[in-house]
Amino acid sequence: MSIRAKLILIIVSILVVFDSAAGLIFYWQNNLAAPAQTLNLIVFWTLLIVLIIVTAVFYLFIGIVTKKISRLSVIARQIAGGRFDIKLEKGDIKAKDETAVLARTLKETSDRLSGLYKDMERKVQQKTKELSSSLKETKKNNDLLEENKKAMLNILEDVEAEKEAADKEREKINTIIHSIGDAVFVTDNNYKIILFNQVAADLSGHGMKEAIGKRYNQVMNFVKEENGNPDRKNDEFIVKAMKTVKVMEMSNHTVLISKTGKRIPVSDSAAPLKDKDGKVIGCVVVFRDVTKERQIDQMKSEFVSVASHQLRTPLTGIKWFVELLLGQKAGKLSKKQKDFLQQILISNERMIALVSDLLDVSHIETGKKFNIEKKEINPAEIFQQILTDNIALIQKKRIKIIRCRELIKGFKIFADADKIRQAFQNLLSNAVKYSRDGGRIELNCDRSNKNETIFSIKDSGFGIPENQQKRVFEKFFRGNNIVTKATDGTGLGLYITRAIVEAHGGKIWFESQENKGTAFHLSIPNK
After folding, report:
1. Considering its fold, how many domains does the chain have in total?
2. Structural Rg of the chain based on CA atoms
3. 175 found inside a domain
4. Are residues 349 and 398 located together in one domain of the fold?
5. pLDDT at 484 exceeding the cut of 90
6. Is the dihedral of CA 284, 290, 291, 297 positive or negative?
């Protein structure tokens, strides 16, 4: 029963008692003849006793309720203080009044708060652990960051030092470049000028600031010096240096046309500029004014030309008279006299060939092209004539000649017969002269390309030393390993051969290995 119901019951009981007493008094007063004083006294004591009993019961009830509420208040304060391990009496829980409901509510609240507290403690411990780990990781990261910061500062210091060193080195290089007596300019891999010294500015007529950032061909107008022909660009040596990653020299008779139109003969080379990984990042071009050298060369060439022309007439006369003598037109000769005259004729022929070569060199040096007259010719017939002319030496050295089918059967090309014969003669006679006894010479041609025919002359002779191969096409060059083995020769044959091939619009190149042989290749355009 609830407290409210119990209180109502007590009040009702009091009212009932008072009502009963009042009825009893009323009855007594109307039906009994007892004196009023006595009756009032009885009623008084009766009411007093009832009031005492009711008050005692009410006080007892209030004490019980107050005790329960006090005990529950203590428990509530314990829960509020964080103690959840409370114990309630069975009567407090099993009762059916409001205190029992409050006790059960406190019990449920305590249990729920205990669970929440434990869960919270678990989560707090977990978060504390995570936070501790995070703090450790943060500390580790901070330490690492500090180390990286120190390392970065050291790197920056090193970079700054390197930058200062690079600036000093760059300044030194610039000073050296600007102090060089030759003209120098440097391009990047897009052929734009990034460095331009004062000599280059003086020769070209373009200021240094004006040239920087422009493509080299907008500033440096290199052309081929050709008599009677329009100027042609002659700056491919720069492009080739970049593409082949090799030092490329200017071709002979290159002229620089300055900003004012002045024509300045120049000479030198272009070299690829590479980074530390070997990648081409630009090109360095060095050139100089060779006006005086050209004048001297021209004087020498003119002298050689005049001397050669003057020598040709008496040499031709000597040859004519020696042939008359050998033909015994002036009388009968003894065998010894014939031998002497034959040696004179051979020496005279060598002199005539030398004079002819000197005249060709004179034409090349003065920038004059060969007078090329192309017509349809059969190279197989030319090779056969050359082999016939050299048959004596071929048989003497027991050299085996191997010709490809095309150079036996024959085919047609468009070329100057005399000049091509001279080029083939120079290459084949060298192969015969510089082959060992019992060697072999292979003559081949490749017609797979419809635009050109490639001829090859390969021997198994002495070869060319590797350190001298870049000089093969120079005037008067003869390999050190050949001079002691073959004393005759002028060193002009390959120089003239290259000029002939280039005059036809072709190319010439070779592969050689000392003591294993040499293979020369020359391409001749089909038209």
Report:
1. 4
2. 62
3. no
4. no
5. no
6. negative
Residue 145 is assigned to a structural domain of this protein? no
Provide the residue count of the chain: 527
337 and 447 both lie in a single domain: no
The two tokens of residue 294 are: 């050209």
416 CA to centre of own chain: 48
Residue 445 confidence (pLDDT) above 50: yes
Same domain, 483 and 420: yes
Poorest-pLDDT segment among 91-95, 201-205, 335-339, 512-516: 91-95
On whether both 327 and 278 belong to a single domain, the answer is no
φ, ψ for residue 273, nearest 5 deg? -105, 120
Three-state secondary structure call for residue 282: strand
In a domain, 138, yes or no: no
User: Which CA distances in Å does 222 have to 24, 216, 235, 415?
Assistant: 152, 10, 6, 29
Residue 20 clears pLDDT 70, i.e. is over it = no
DSSP secondary structure letter of residue 215? B
Q: Determine the Cα–Cα distance for residues 109 and 94; give it in Å rounded to an integer.
A: 17
Q: What is the pLDDT of residues 97-144, one digit of tens each?
A: 666 666 667 667 766 766 777 777 788 788 778 777 777 777 777 777
Q: Are 44 and 24 in contact (CB under 8 A)?
A: no
Clarify whether residues 412 and 455 are in a common domain.
yes
* Dist. CA 482–CA 35, nearest whole Å: 181
Top pLDDT among 174 and 403 is at: 403
273 and 194 assigned to the same domain: yes
- DSSP per-residue string spanning 409-465: H---EEE-HHHHHHHHHHHHHHHHHTSPTT-EEEEEEE--STTEEEEEEEE-SS---
CA distance 185 to 478: 35
Residue 120 lies in a domain: no
What pLDDT, in 10s, does the model give residues 295-328?
Answer: 777 777 677 666 666 777 787 888 888 888 888 8
Sequence-distant (≥ 6) Cβ neighbours of residue 65 within 8 angstroms: 3, 99
Range of the domain at 43: 3-81
Residues 503 and 387 in one domain: yes
Query: For residue 459, what is the domain's CATH number?
Result: 3.30.565.10
Question: Concatenated DSSP letters for 323-380?
Answer: HHHHTTTTS---HHHHHHHHHHHHHHHHHHHHHHHHHHHHHHHTTPPP----EEE-HH
